[in-house]
Amino acid sequence: MSKIKLAFIGCGGMAGAHLNGYLELKRKGIDIFDIVALVDPVEANTEKFAHRIAEVQEFPIPTIYKDPEKMLAEQKPHAADICTPHFLHHNHAIMCLEAGVHSIVEKPLGVTIKATKKMIQAAEDNNRILAVAEQVRRWLPARTVAWAVHNGMIGDPQMFFAHTVGGSKINPDETIRNRVMTWRQNKLTGGGGPIFDFGVHYIDLLIYIFGDIESVHAYSGKFGDLKYKDTEGNVVEPTVEDTCIASIKFKSGVVGTWNWSGIAPGKSLSYTVYYGSKGSIYSGGVYPNSPQLQLWDDTIKEPSELIHEFVTKVDKADLERFFPQEVYPEPEKVTGDHGVLLEVYDFLKAIIDNRPPELGGWDGLKAQAVPIAFFESAQSGQVVTIDDVMEERVEAYQQEINHKWRI
Ligand SMILES: NC(=O)c1ccc[n+]([C@@H]2O[C@H](COP(=O)([O-])OP(=O)(O)OC[C@H]3O[C@@H](n4cnc5c(N)ncnc54)[C@H](O)[C@@H]3O)[C@@H](O)[C@H]2O)c1
After folding, report:
1. CA 171 – CA 341 distance, rounded (Å)
2. Which atom from ligand 1 is nearest to the alpha carbon of 91?
3. In a designed cystine with 33, which of 4, 62, 122, 214 is the match (CB 3.0 to 4.6 A)?
4. Which of 49, 83, 111 has most ligand 1 atoms within 8 Å of its beta carbon, as the pocket-test mutant?
C-alpha cells in the first residue's frame, strides 16, 4: 500500500491528542500516512486542526467536511480516526467500515453492548480493522505492573483495591454549575457517566493485569445535587451517576473493589493497590503511574527501580512490540502522553502489516461490558455476570439508550 489516507471524524478535545500523536510520528520521520480529510460540524474545530496539520504536512491539504458520508464518498480514505460523542460512535464506525475504511474509535467503543456488537459485525463483514483507542495499558508504568504481576513478583495474584474519590471542594450550597451541560452528563448521549467514560480505561488495565472478569456487584447512582445550564440558560440535571461502589470477581479467582465518587466533599482519595501471596504493588493516583513493589519481608522496589527492571528484563520482542525502536529508541525515557501516539501507530501498522491491532473490537466490548454491568447490577440489585451482559441477557439499564438511537 502507498501512504494510508487518513480521515478524522470528530475534531474535538480528544481528537486533538490523537492529532498530536500523528504529527509526532511525522516529525519522527514515520511518514506512512497523510491526513486527507477532517469532519466536524463545528468549523472552528476543523480550522484549528487544519492549521496544526499545515505546520507538519505541507501536502496534501486536508479537505474539510461537516458530513462524514460526503467525505467518505469523495475522499475514499483507507482509514478513519473517530473521536465523536459516544452515541455517534456506532453510526460513524459502521458507515466507515461498510465503505471499506479501517477504523480506530475512541473508548468506550459503543454507547451500549448492542451498538458495539454491530460495529464488530460490520468490521467482520467487511474484513476491516476495528481498533479501540485505549492508551492506559500502553504507558510504561502500566506495562511494568502487568509484567511484574505476570512474572510472579507479588506471588499468586489475589486482590486489588482502588479508590478514586474527588469533589473535595464542592460547596453543597452552590450546586448549580455555571457550565453548559454536555453530551457527557446525559445518559442517552454518554451511555453512562464517568465510571463508563474513564472507567473503561481502568477496567481494560485490570483485564490486562488479571485476565477476564467473571462478575460484579455494584451500587451506582447519584448522591450529589449538581446541576448545569442548557444553551438557553435553563437549569438542567445530569442523568448519569456521580458515584459507583463496585466489587469485581475475576475468572482467575482474583477479587477486588473499585470505588469512585466525584461528589465527596472533604478528603480526596486516589490510589490503587494489587496484592498477591507474597506482596503488593501500590501507586497513588487513578492509574498505577508510580508503582512501588513491597514484599512481605519488607523488600521494597521504588517505581524507578521496578520500571528499570522491567525495561532491562522483559522479553526483547515484547519490548519492541510495546515501544517500537523507530518511535522510542530509549523506552526508559518514555514519558507523558505517549500512550496515544503508540495506539495510533499500532493502528497504522496493523493496516500496513495486515495484522490485528493490540486492542480490537472484542477488547473494547469486554472493557465496556464491566461498567455497564455495574449499572445493570445497581439497577437490579443483583450480582451480574459479564457473560450475561455481553450476550445481552441482561440489558435493562441500556434499554432506553438502545430505544432512543434505534440500535
Ligand atoms: N482516551 C482518553 O483519555 C479520552 C479522553 C477524553 C475523551 N475521550 C473520548 O473521545 C471521544 C470524544 O470525546 P471528546 O472529549 O473529544 O469530546 P468533544 O465533545 O470535545 O469532541 C467531540 C467532537 O465531535 C464533534 N461531532 C459531533 N457530532 C459530529 C458528527 N456528526 N460528525 C463529526 N463530528 C461530530 C463535535 O463537534 C466535537 O468537536 C469520546 O469517545 C470520549 O470518551 C477519550
Report:
1. 38
2. 31
3. 4
4. 83
Q: Are strands 33-39 and 4-9 parallel, antiparallel or unpaired?
A: parallel
- pLDDT, tens only, 304-362: 999 999 999 999 999 999 999 999 989 888 876 789 999 999 999 999 999 999 999 99
Q: For residue range 32-77, what is the model confidence (pLDDT) as tens digits? A: 999 999 999 999 999 999 999 999 999 999 999 999 999 999 999 9
**Grid coordinates standing for 266?**
472533604
d(CA 194, ligand 1 centre) in Å: 14
Would you state the CATH architecture of domain 4-136? Answer: 3-Layer(aba) Sandwich (3.40)
CATH fold match for the domains 4-136 and 137-335:
no
Ligand 1 shell residues, CB under 6 Å:
9-15, 39-42, 45, 68, 83-86, 88, 106-107, 133, 135, 197
Q: Where are the domains of the chain?
A: 4-136, 137-335
Protein residue with its CA nearest to atom 44 in ligand 1 = 14
pTM above 0.90, yes or no: yes
